[in-house]
Amino acid sequence: MRKFIKAGLMLVLGLTLVAPGMTTPANAASKVKVVSTSKIAKKAYHGKKGYIYSSAKLTKKKHNMKNYKYTTWYGTKKATIKRAGKKRASLTYIKTGKKKGWIYSKYLTAGKAPINKNKKLKDDIASFNRAAMLGDSGFQYFVNFSAKNYEELGNSLGYDGLGQYNGSTEELTMTRKALLGIYDIFKGRFSKIQNANLKAMANDLENFSISSDNDLASEKLRSFAETLENLIQSLD
């Protein structure tokens, strides 16, 4: 009997010694005091590091900002917190799509995130190739479907393939569809004047009746293609 009593006392003593060192989620949360919260005007932010938490009490990490360097977040709330033994800190509530949470404000930079240029180029090449497939066989013959940069993409539309803009009404109509599709990919990416001029050319080409004058249609296609060529190459 004494052995059982002794064993029981040792177990209780062991739990007493271990318990203070254990931290439950509730205890962890209680160490963060939310001093104040307030709404702020919606503002764009981006960042390179820091965890995004589910609540201002920092109870659960939801995301790591290092995985979202090229993502723009929007802040709508601020909070001031106090942690045991530490100075007060500022948090910002941010959201992008369905992702949201609180992050230390010091990890945020005001403004939209930078563009991931490598990913953008790959996406542009894929979109360019899809649009080019809408053109007739003559148009596709001159397209560099293995292009690795904007210089090579632009060359697909340039002087090497001037003959591709002559053909039947059906072929010219297909080529127009391909060129306007390529325009849709890159519109708005140039200077204000260039964007305005390109838009005017696109509208004119889209509204032109090809069947009424194939020679004029060929000239419009050629002019539009050469303009696109130079502007796309300028993106490198």
From TrEMBL:
<keyword id="KW-0732">Signal</keyword>
<protein>
    <recommendedName>
        <fullName>D-alanyl-D-alanine carboxypeptidase</fullName>
    </recommendedName>
</protein>
<feature type="signal peptide">
    <location>
        <begin position="1"/>
        <end position="28"/>
    </location>
</feature>
